[in-house]
Amino acid sequence: MRLTVNDRTYEVAVPARKTLADTLREDCGLTGTHVGCEQGVCGSCTVLCDGEPVRACLMFAVQCAGVRIRTVEGLAADDGRPHPVQEAFQRHGALQCGFCTPGFLMLLTGALAGLDGEEPDDERLREIVSANLCRCTGYLPILAAARDAAALLAGADADIDADIDAVADVDPEVDTDAGAGDEAQDGARGGGPARPD
After folding, report:
1. CB–CB of 89/143 below 8 Å?
2. In whole angstroms, what is the distance from residue 17 CA to residue 152 CA?
3. C-alpha distances in Å from residue 66, one per residue of 49, 57, 139, 151
4. Contact 106, 34 (CB under 8 A)
5. Mean pLDDT within 66-71
6. d(Cα 2, Cα 7) in Å, to the nearest integer?
7. What is the pTM of this model?
């Protein structure tokens, strides 16, 4: 079958039940898509399919024939300039171990692009970010980066020197227990990022 990933065509021969995540990693050599829980809970494997964030561990590769797939390797511009979301993550130090970072980058890229230039408020950003799990950062730098990226993508003047303390009173209310998986799975395909109640 033929997959279109980051505007490049890959000819792959895969079993019908091979996941998109495994196909990207093993057959396309794109190892930036990380595999964590393999149940659609953690979001580490998030990629964009036709611009929508999806869990690559929940999709079969054969479902993606004719779909434009974008992974973290295709996020930067052709000239190597980082995407605004990547720039924001770097500015705010929004990672520690880095395992979840590609999934967050792809989630935010797809979700913010879907807002059509509208700059989301903190509540909406918390909803978006809560679709993925991070065990290291406590989410505050990720939220700061999300706010910065949203401002850049909306064409607003982002405060590059924004202090993380500006979001210190924000509680992302991310349930890291099993219940979070149900919310994350709801946003796994077609519905965009999960939205907690």
Report:
1. no
2. 40
3. 10, 19, 35, 32
4. no
5. 97
6. 12
7. 0.79
